[in-house]
Write a structure and sequence with these properties.
flat, 17 strands, single chain, alpha+beta
Length: 305
């Protein structure tokens, strides 16, 4: 890893820990003594998003992390890692769990969750159309929402339908009918937003519930300016990778500023050249006038005694 920060955590999926033994893997950060992890609480079932390593608090900087495995024991599947970069507004791809306090819920969202879901928690959508909403405000350039479908689609029921509204633009997610329960399904995505503040809210459109698991938003770390949460950023656009149409106004403004600066510099340069020319001409006229006066005095027709 090369991201600077003060801490790192590693998450993985484990399987057959009881029958095959724990994975023989150790972690070393900053070339320090290797540290193994303990998965005694995990059985033979497949369990995802298990915290397998967490570093101590480190000085703010870049730290090499090594994972060393002998291949013995049960399988070890790396899921993802998180970095604490000690900033109020983190940059990069930021994962926000469904239980995070920054997500505002209205209506009755029932707590749920399974071992194979992120941090083993989900929030079940309120039953019935428009029974409640989830709202999240962030600063960044993209966002995606993930969750779990319900068994009603597998048992011949209708698929889930969700409405996502990003900066005033609404798009719809339509699930797959007669499908099995699916986890880590991407319900919504827009990765082409202008850098700024954005607000996303979503709600169920019918009786077919689903489970909100987590969202991921992208922040490139650059300075945010002039984009309000009321949609003044130029619009976010639709979901499922749909483009946001706000970047053009910022580019146009920057181009106008550049052109204005160039024109102003050219005008200033022309004025300076004209001023220099005027000074040179005036200086030459003065020299010619002085020369005529001296000559008249030297060869005048009268001399005063």
């Amino acid at each position: 890893m090369s991201e600077p920060g003060i801490g790192i955590s590693v998450y993985a999926t484990l399987n057959n820990v009881v029958s095959q033994g724990q994975p023989d893997i150790v972690f070393s950060i900053d070339n320090d003594n290797p540290v193994s992890f303990n998965a005694n609480s995990v059985g033979d079932e497949v369990v995802s998003h298990i915290l397998v390593y967490q570093s101590p608090v480190l000085f703010n900087g870049t730290h090499p992390l090594k994972a060393i495995s002998t291949g013995r024991g049960s399988p070890f599947y790396f899921d993802f890692l998180t970095v604490d970069n000690a900033q109020e507004n983190p940059f990069g791809d930021v994962i926000v769990d469904d239980r995070d306090l920054s997500i505002l819920y209205s209506g009755t969202w029932e707590p749920n969750g399974a071992e194979s879901e992120y941090l083993h928690t989900t929030s079940q959508t309120p039953k019935g159309p428009n029974g409640g909403t989830a709202t999240f405000t962030f600063e960044g350039t993209g966002i995606a929402v993930y969750g779990t479908t319900d068994a009603n689609a597998r048992n011949g029921g209708n698929a889930t339908h969700l409405a996502f509204t990003l900066d005033g633009f609404t798009t719809q997610y339509d699930g797959i009918p007669n499908s099995d329960v699916m986890k880590n399904v991407r319900f919504f995505s827009n990765q082409s937003l202008p850098n700024g503040k954005h607000t996303l809210n979503f709600t169920l459109l019918d009786e077919n519930i689903c489970y909100f698991d987590y969202l991921v938003y992208s922040n490139d770390g650059s300075e945010v300016g002039g984009n309000g949460s009321d949609g003044s950023s130029g619009g976010g656009g639709g979901g499922s990778g749909g483009g946001g149409g706000g970047g053009g106004s910022n580019s146009k403004t920057n181009l106008e500023a550049i052109i204005g600066g160039v024109v102003g510099a050219i005008v200033l340069l022309i004025l300076l050249v004209l001023l220099v020319v005027c000074v040179i001409i005036r200086s030459r006229k003065q020299k010619r006038t002085q020369g005529k006066v001296v000559k008249g005095e030297a060869h005048g027709s009268t001399t005063e005694l």
